[in-house]
Amino acid sequence: FSDPASNLGLEDIIRKALMGTVEERQE
Amino acid sequence: SRKDILLACPMNMHPQTDPDKTPQEIWEDFSLSFTPAVREVVQFAKHIPGFSSLSQNDQITLLKAGTFEVLMVRFASLFNVKEKTVTFISGTTYSLETLKNMGMGTLLETMFDFSEKLSALELSAEELSLFTAVVLVSTDRYGIQNVKSVEMLQDNLIKALRTLVSKNAPGDVSRFTKLLLRLPELRTLNNMHSEKLLSFRID
């Protein structure tokens, strides 16, 4: 792919932070 | 080398890389280093009036495209133009020469240049916060589904910023223009940074 944000795993971090803390608490 | 690029990022908590670690492990350490800062950007975005009204896709798209630019503004003070040093979030300060030896070249110089111009504007905390909001919604539109909503939000924020900047420095009419001129510079920095990242992918 050619998406630097995906390269960094940025989307995953953003998505979790945006959706709230439920997933983060489970981690 | 890959390790050199990792070492040279101010968002890296572990610039001194353990030689026994695999590139994957180094990458994971790096990711853990910048994750708190990214989360802060997301929290900041949530507090921008109107941002949460955008679709989830558009919120994520703006954040993906704009996080680097927001962090560049937020951490511009880590670049000490006078001393020619950069302080990483680990707290360690590096000289320009050391950083160049780590592989930071044109991008570093452009970051210094941006930081100098931004600090020259002597923004108040409120101005900086509103400017940062403008930065986020002014980022690349690629992948945005409802461009009109983003543009409306951008217009509102820019108007609010203009009002605030004019109120704080009524005698300096060029201050607002100078501030807006930082936006294309951030876009350029973002592109340069993206190129660095793309040359550094770990499967």
Describe, in plain words, how this protein is organized in 3D.
The complex is a heterodimer of chains A (27) and B (203). Chain A is an all-alpha fold. Chain A has helices spanning 4-7, 10-19, 22-26. Helix content of chain B is 64%, strand content 4%. Chain B starts with a helix and ends in a 5-residue tail after the last helix. Chain B has helices at residues 2-7, 23-46, 56-74, 96-101, 106-120, 125-137, 147-168, 174-180, 182-198, and strands at residues 79-80, 85-87, 93-95. With 203 residues, chain B is mostly helical. In chain B, a hairpin with a 5-residue loop joins strand 2 (85-87) and strand 3. Chain B contains 9 helices and 3 strands. Chains A and B meet through helix 1 and helix 2 of A and helix 2, helix 3 and helix 9 of B.
How are the SSEs ordered, and which strands pair?
The complex is a heterodimer of chains A (27) and B (203).
Chain A: H1 4-7, H2 10-19, H3 22-26
Chain B: H1 2-7, H2 23-46, H3 56-74, E1 79-80, E2 85-87, E3 93-95, H4 96-101, H5 106-120, H6 125-137, H7 147-168, H8 174-180, H9 182-198
Antiparallel strand pairs in B: 1-2, 2-3
Helix pairs in contact in B: 2-3, 3-6, 3-9, 5-9, 6-7
Descriptive terms for the model:
heterodimer, A: 27 residues, mainly alpha, 3 helices, 70% helix, rod-shaped, B: 203 residues, three-stranded antiparallel sheet, 9 helices, 3 strands, globular, disordered N terminus
Overall residue-averaged pLDDT value of chain A: 70
Separation, N- and C-terminal Cα atoms of chain B: 16 Å
Which structural class do the helices and strands of chain B define? mainly alpha
Count the beta strands of chain B: 3
Largest sheet of chain B: 3 strands, antiparallel
**What is the helix tally of chain A?**
3
Order of helices and strands of chain B: HHHEEEHHHHHH
Strand content of chain B: under 5%
Average residue pLDDT of chain B: 91
Number of DSSP strands of chain A? 0
Helical residues, percent of chain A:
over 70%
